[in-house]
Structures are given as structure tokens and as C-alpha cells.
Amino acid sequence: MRVGWATLCRYAEVNDGLATMVGAGLDTYFVPGFPETIQVVVVFQLFGTQQEMADEHELVFRIHDPAMNAAESPSVTFVGEPNPLALPGWEASTILVTAHVLPASAEGAYGIEIVVDGDSQNTVPFSVRGLASGDES
């Protein structure tokens, strides 16, 4: 299994193998102060063989803070649902949407690393910034 693409957004849903996203490409979160918690929605597409897609997989997210400390989310298992329009013999794919509530302890660069079956597949970077007086969210 491999991640073909991943992005952050404000909202996403998947129907019939297609994703609808609002605010896709989001890369900066503004908070009133620190520490703060933020909600991050990650949308990503996994590719693999039809057999791989039908198997159970372990999914873990590692959250990296500005000091590059990493905290792992609890692991979850999933079985992919291939795109129903995929042609026989083609690589299968599935789109997953996950939501995370993360602690933001300081201003700076963060990242969400996607780990599938113990293999790091992709890291989605984002930043968290404090609101200065006069800034609007």
C-alpha cells in the first residue's frame, strides 16, 4: 500500500470512491494563544493491488511538533474499499478521511506522518501561528 496524495482541509466526505473537500490545501492554523488544541482533517488516497485493498491494514499517524518530537496516535485497522469504477488489472485505490484533535504547544512547523502497516508513507506539513493583535482568522 502506498499513499498517492494527502492534503489537509476544513471538511471532506467520500461517496462512491470520490472525495468532496472544502478548503483543500489548508496549511496554516491561527490560534489565539498557546497552548491550544486544533482540529486537523487529513484526506489521502491509498493505492495497492486489489488483494492488498481487500486485506486488513494498520494505520497510525505520527504528529511532529516544531521541535520534531513525534507522538503517535492510537493505531486503527481498516479494510480498503476500492473505487467501484476501477478497471480489472488496474491498481486499486481508496480515499480515506481522518480527523484529529492535536495539541499546539508553540508557534511553528508541524507535520502529520501517515504510517501504513509500519511503513512511513507521507508527511503532510502545516504551521500553527498565534494571532497578533489586529489579525483576523
Overview of this protein structure:
By secondary structure, the chain is mainly beta. The protein has a single domain (2-130), classed as Immunoglobulin-like, CATH 2.60.40.1930. Helices cover 4% and strands 62% of the residues. The protein has one helix and eleven strands, in the order βββββαββββββ. Strands 4, 6, 7, 8, 10 and 11 form a six-stranded mixed sheet that branches. The model has no long low-confidence stretch (mean pLDDT 90).
- CATH superfamily membership: Macroglobulin (MG2) domain
Q: What order do the SSEs take from the amino end to the carboxyl end, as H and E?
A: EEEEEHEEEEEE
CATH architecture: Sandwich
Total helices: the number is 1
Taken from the alpha-carbon principal axes, the silhouette is elongated
Structural class: mainly beta
Largest sheet: 6 strands, mixed
* Number of beta strands: 11
Number of separate structural domains:
1
The chain-level mean pLDDT equals: 90
CATH topology: Immunoglobulin-like
